[in-house]
Amino acid sequence: MNNDALHPTELRAWLGFVVASHLMEQEVERQLKTDGGMSHGEFEILVKLDLADGHRLRMSDLARQVMISKSRLTYQVTQLERQGLVSRSDCPSDRRAVWAELTAKGAEALAAVRPGHRRVVRGNLLGRFTDEELQQFGDLVNRIADHLLEQRDGR
Amino acid sequence: MNNDALHPTELRAWLGFVVASHLMEQEVERQLKTDGGMSHGEFEILVKLDLADGHRLRMSDLARQVMISKSRLTYQVTQLERQGLVSRSDCPSDRRAVWAELTAKGAEALAAVRPGHRRVVRGNLLGRFTDEELQQFGDLVNRIADHLLEQRDGR
DNA sequence: AGGCGTTAGTTCAAATTCGAACCACGCGTT
DNA sequence: AACGCGTGGTTCGAATTTGAACTAACGCCT
Predict the structure, then answer these.
(1) Which residues from chain A sit within 8 angstroms of residue B5, using beta carbons?
(2) How far is the C-alpha of B110 from the C-alpha of B43, rounded, in Å?
(3) pTM of the model as a whole
(4) Average pLDDT in the A149-153 region?
(5) Which residues are within 8 A (CB) of A97 and not within 5 positions of it... i.e. 6 or more apart?
(6) In angstroms, what is the C-alpha Rg of chain B?
(7) In this predicted structure, what is the pLDDT of residue A1?
(8) Is residue A46 a contact partner of residue A106, using CB atoms and an 8 Å limit?
(9) Covered bases, chain C (protein CB within 7 Å)
């Protein structure tokens, strides 16, 4: 029971999860790309900035929130800056830190892709559940997410 | 109800899903890397080959099964071939096609990482559900996966 | 046989990602 | 003030990924 091959029910659940997350990612990616010329990673950065106080976050906090490496964030923010969607500025209180801030143009770009993004997420995932199933699904994945976060922080 | 912001229950489900799949991917990746020096992508290739008749598949079938681009598969199979885990050979019946075949060494490498892989999948996901929840979860994600596959094939 | 649209796979350059190395700074200790 | 250690960010080269050609071969149709 503990180191045997995954049994059929387990296998089905695992494969379904892998396939679903893989394809959802591709759908989201595709919509954001064609629809607003941005990647899912860039989109998530803009979303987190939008949510943040003063529409800005320090690079390291941003990296934690979107769960990517520092160097990857540096690269992506540079790209976003090039497009004028984000601006960098030095933090006065901590001279090591850098603020990444959503620009007005960035907010527009975000607003422009969001309806399409919601359509993809609802049309392919959330909207295919009954209210009860949505609740169940949310409970299950959040339990897993919480566990994985704890797991990770213990390192 | 159709183009409003995601409401709390939806948002929770979506974010939970994104975080869970992202972190599961990282956990799996980490285990396979440290434990057997391979990426999740390489692992999936070996698994599909292992499952196939004669432990071999044509490149394009393999690409479809692991859901990656042709060029990416070419690259990854080349890497696996370099490590001696897979071998390529021409297909006699269709001179365009190429067989990718799991070598004995590849089968060993696969066998070596599988216990750890199962531990990660069970310890972080499947094993955290009751039998009933596992069934529910499997049903939900497979419904989504099936839908996304149809969706995609209609293009 | 010749033509034509499709499929299989590879190749190439450009874009992205990774991970280790690095620099500058903050902070607590001495 | 000097030291040492941890943090915040960037940089750099190597590895990987992308997507658009490109070559070869198949299969159908005439």
Answers:
(1) 118
(2) 7
(3) 0.93
(4) 89
(5) A58, A59, A60, A90, A91
(6) 18
(7) 63
(8) yes
(9) 7-12, 16-21, 24-27
